[in-house]
# Entry
Amino acid sequence: MKEPARALKSANKALGMAREAHSRAAEVDALRFISKAHAAMDSLDLAVQVAFEAMGTSKALADKQAAASLTTSLARAVLELGKPEQALLIAEEARILYGQQRDARGQAELFRDVVASALLRSGSVAK
# Structure
């Protein structure tokens, strides 16, 4: 359990450095890693909170590919928290972002990894 905590400390340091340098792209990368570290430490609520922050920052950069990836990660995290209906709503936003990028592979992974699992967990049936 020490390694994720050390990784989190390092990522927080990187986040501070990115903010001091006013590098929004580096900030997004650090936030993504911080979210993963929280998830590795079973702090899923914090992981989701940080993922939302990263998603907002990436949207401010107008980097739709990064925003789509972050939104997918967020949908996965919300699904892991046992909230399939919310995960589906977030996944829809990711689908739109992937569509704007004409990223069929991203959309396919989103449907495979998030949408199908969320539908199974919620008991919904896809039409």
Remarks:
- Helices lie at 2-20, 24-40, 44-60, 64-80, 84-100, 104-122.
- Residues 56 and 62 are 10 Å apart (CA to CA).
